[in-house]
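S.,

Sequence below, as promised.
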Amino acid sequence: MRISRAMVVLTAALMVLVAGCTKQVAGAAASDPNKPPLSVSKDGYGIVAGFDNAPKKIEIYTEPQCNHCADLQHDFGDQLAYYIAVGQLEVTYRPMTFLDDKSGGYSGQVSNALFLAAEKPAATGTQFQRFVEHLWEHQRPGGTPPTKDELHEFATKAGMSDSVAKRISDGGSAVNTKDMDDANFEFLYEIDSTEMGTPTVYDLDKGEKLDIYDNDWLNKLIQS
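The prediction came back faster than expected:
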């Protein structure tokens, strides 16, 4: 049985009261001449950053207006970018839009921008991770979504080419965000039907939800 979106929103609201991750990661990702690829997942509703032969693979369920999702990027974005760049981690981002009050709202527009980055010719996986960090760092929950100029700026700062940045800022349709949200909602429900919320990080290899409130969860994953 599928739970209602109202319950998910309530769960997200309750999570605001829970302390988020606290570890600040220093340093920057090492450059990789092989340029980790970026693509859309086979089901069409995730964005895959990293090499397919990476030994560790995770999914990140994230909502563009979720403050804990911003905390995750703030605290672990550098590490995620590094492990993607050196080929140790493949990350599939699965955006959700349950905090939107209308179709095509803030979260829908940001989610669409993520898929635009993966269109051919795509940005690299590392650039995409940096783009995610910029978007969540400058989030305005309940406010106005990023402007065209802001999207172009965030993409450029992430290292994307001007042509990719322009494609993102022009805002063409890259994904049906309603279908995307429905599909990713179902995937998240299958992972944990009792404590649904974002961010959720799922270990695809072991088939288990990771404890992201352990400050060393990512290093432990890579070393396991």
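The CA atoms of residues 30 and 82 lie 6 Å apart.

Coffee later?
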